[in-house]
Amino acid sequence: MTNFELLVDSRDLVGEGPTWDERRSCLWWTDILSKRLHRLDWPSRVLTTVAMPRRVGSIGLCESGRLLLAFEDGVFLHEPGTERFEHVATIEAEIVMNRLNDGKVGPDGAFWVGSMDERQPRQPSGALYRVTLAGAERLFGGVTVSNGLAWSPDGRTMMHADTGASAIDRFDFDPATGAIAHRRRFAEAGEAIGRPDGAAFAMDGTYWSAGVSAGVLNGFDPEGRLVRSVPVPMPHPTMPCFGGSDLRTVFVSSLRDYRGTDLDRHPQSGGLMVGDLGVAGVPVSRFKD
For residue 207, what is the enclosing H or E element? Predict the structure, then answer.
């Protein structure tokens, strides 16, 4: 089965960051521009939406059970169900045109998060950071829209995409230390194929990238070849996430307006989709808090 269908008609302006929480059997995701944090209880299908004090670009799970939230210019720990936010790191507060975007906890237990330029046309003012309780370390810059973070099944390869540059890069990764090396181009995906947005790895080594401009999920093999392109019902998917008890259910967030979306034809744009790609996903790690 590769058919995807609408699961939640959330109509998010910029739905992003779906994150499967195996302890709570729920899915978290964010509507960045509306400053909303969603939680979908999977057994009951009950949706809870909470207003956030600022825009949340991405979400991480913590070993303690707390959430890690990337606001526009900083990363905070958050206890769900409360209004408590604990500061972890300030990032790019001085770069007023930037905000934090895609982020994910790596096999090293650190939170990896990138930034993006909010202006039009976008400029390569963004960067990628590694965040621990000791603060944030800048890894590299020259990024337009940081996206696509994911780690291979053995944890030794890290992927990173720049949506603005239509490019996906791969790095050698040390799961013990978080060191990255040997950056090289993995794939390029333009407007027609689907610009690379958020992504996730499957256990068979396929890297699944949301083709935000083409209404598809693109599956790349370990050599960077596009081997599958699966259509989804929303024209602008933003990130896939494997979840469910066996990590075989695929959740996909989307955004409502992208370069003049025809909302008469696609009134449920911005909704959360669900489907099955026929393979289990790689479990996402937890932040060492």
Answer: strand 207-211
Catalytic residue among 108, 162, 197, 289: 197
- C-beta atoms surrounding 281 within 10 Å: 26
169 is catalytic: no
Query: Burial, 20: exposed, middle or buried (Cβ in 10 Å; 0-12, 13-18, 19+)?
Result: buried
Q: How far apart are the first and last CA of the chain?
A: 38
Q: Decide if 100 contacts 92 (C-beta within 8 A).
A: yes
> What pLDDT does 266 receive?
82
d(CA 138, CA 144): 15
* The pLDDT value given to residue 2: 62
Q: Does residue 155 carry a pLDDT above 60?
A: yes
Mean local confidence (pLDDT), 220-249: 97
Residue 272, pLDDT > 60, answer yes
List residues bridging with 48 in a β-sheet.
39
DSSP notation for 217-275: EEEE-TTS-EEEEEE-SSSSEEEEEEESTTS-EEEEEEBS-SSS--TTT-TTTT-EEEE
Instruction: Tell me if 171 sits within 8 A of 121, measured CB to CB.
Output: no
Give dist(CA 19, CA 124) in Å, integer. 27
pLDDT reported for residue 1 = 45
Q: For residues 17 and 2, what is the distance between their CA atoms, to the nearest angstrom?
A: 21
Could you give the CA distance from residue 235 to residue 216 in angstroms, rounded to a whole number? Answer: 8
Calculated CA dihedral for residues 63, 282, 42, 15, nearest 10 degrees? 90
Q: pTM for this structure?
A: 0.96
The Cα 37–Cα 43 span in angstroms is 19
Q: How far apart are CA 35 and CA 27, in angstroms?
A: 17
Say whether the peptide bond before residue 283 is cis (omega within 30 degrees of 0): no
